[in-house]
Amino acid sequence: MSFRTPKGTDDIMPPESRLWRSVLRAWDILAERYGYAYVATPIFESTDLFARGMGETTEVVEKQMYNFLDKGGRRLTLRPEITAGVVRAYIQAGRWGEFKGAYSGPCFRYERPQEGRRRQFWQLGVEYLGTPDVEADLEVIELGYRYLLDCGLGDVVVHVNSIGDPPDRLAYHSVLSAWLEDRADQLSRDARRRIRTNPLRVLDSKADREVVAGAPVPVDHLGEAAAAHHDDLIEGLQERGIAYDEDPRLVRGLDYYNRTVFEYIPPSYRAAQNAVGGGGRYDGLSRLLGGPDVPGVGLALGLDRILSAVGSRPPARALDVFLVVADQDRRSLAQAFARRLRSAGVRCDLVAGRRSVKAQFRAANRRDAAAAVVIGSEWDAGLVTVKDLSSGDERTMPAGEVVPWVKGVPVGGGR
Ligand code: AMP
Question: How far apart are the CA of 144 and the centre of ligand 1, in A?
Answer without folding.
Answer: 14
